[in-house]
Amino acid sequence: MISEVNNLTKEKIQQLLASVGVQSHKDADKNIETSDYNWHLSHYFNRSELKKIDIFAQAVAHKIAANFSSLYQNKFDVEVNSITQHFASEFMTSDIKENYFLAFGSADQVFGLIDIPNQPAILWSTQLLGDTKADSNTPRKLSQLEESLLFDIASSIINAYSVSSPDELTPTGEIACGRMPVEIDMMREVCKIAFTFKQANSDQVSQACLWVFSDVIQSVAGKAAKAENIPQQNISKAMLNHFMAMPLDVTVSLSNVRFNFQQVMDIQPGDIIVLDKNVNESADLIIDNNVLLRGKPAKSNGKYSVVVTELCNRK
User: Fold this and answer.
1) All CATH 3.40.1550.10 domain ranges in the chain, comma separated
2) What is the CA 48 to chain-centroid distance, rounded?
3) Numbered ranges of CATH 2.30.330.10 in the chain
4) Structural domain 47-217, CATH architecture
5) What is the pLDDT of residues 280-290, one digit of tens each?
6) DSSP 8-state assignment for residue 181
7) Which residues contact 1 (CB under 8 A, 6 or more apart)?
């Protein structure tokens, strides 16, 4: 039986709280880990998928370096500087009036854009003309000949991407300065791959970017394409089959009894706890906090069991 004790010590309270998994506010705060989620940024790819894109980008950088080294007859080092996710509106509304863009893709769709700032555009085109002393720090518009050379340079970057991907890609259109060469949905998600370029025997480092549409590069990331044109009937059937196969925990409740803290702390082996149900009353079978069945406690093959005697309201 349960004895009556008039005092409940601090140690007993802490023991009871620990037994039910309750922590103090101080301890609970230590275990809380949070991170800010910026809804204004694209989150198309997770960390694992971004790692796969990084491996792909490293291969592209290696091929770009080989193409540039062949084009300029001098060794180039090309490295991946960053891989970030954006909405198209971010770079379409930024200051791009001096940048040069070239779209690329397959025969039936645009994959993305090459973004070359003004400084490397001047540097690369003039060096290809043999002018190694041209001032590339003062922004200016390229001449028609320089734009033609820049098109060839950008095409070598597209070639590097194409060789490293399963798709055969080519430039679509001409070099455009200060504007998008193709129409883009402002809310379309894009993956920005930024590269750094450094020529041997030179301390000057240049940058250029690949803006690749996320839904296009998702195969590289191992992300499954979204299912399209699936009949609604098939979707409903698949969902129903999924729900029917979901495991559910069924709890058998004989009865409930209410104790105070002191009584719980005083329970000892051999004490008898009297429940509020008669022995001939049914036990409740509870699923998701709802009593759906009732039955009589029984025994089967040496195990506790319940013989279902009543179906409760399942609404």
Assistant:
1) 47-217
2) 8
3) 247-315
4) 3-Layer(aba) Sandwich (3.40)
5) 888 998 888 88
6) S
7) 271, 272
- CATH fold label, 247-315: Surface presentation of antigens (SPOA) (2.30.330)
Between CA 277 and CA 254 the distance in angstroms is 8
DSSP 282: P
User: Which of 171, 197, 230, 233 is closest to 64 using CA atoms?
Assistant: 197
Length of the chain: 315
Q: In terms of pTM, does the model score above 0.90?
A: no
Q: Where does residue 173 fall: left (phi above 0), alpha (psi -120 to 50 degrees), or beta otherwise? A: left
Tell me the three-class secondary structure of 32-43, residue by residue: CCCCCCCCCCCC
Task: Quick: pLDDT tens for 194-252.
Answer: 999 998 888 889 999 999 999 888 888 887 655 555 676 777 788 788 778 888 888 98
In single-letter form, the type of residue at position 118 comes to N
- How would DSSP label each residue in 252-278? EE-------HHHHHT--TT-----SS-
Question: What pLDDT was estimated at residue 25?
Answer: 52
**What single letter denotes the amino acid at residue 219?**
S
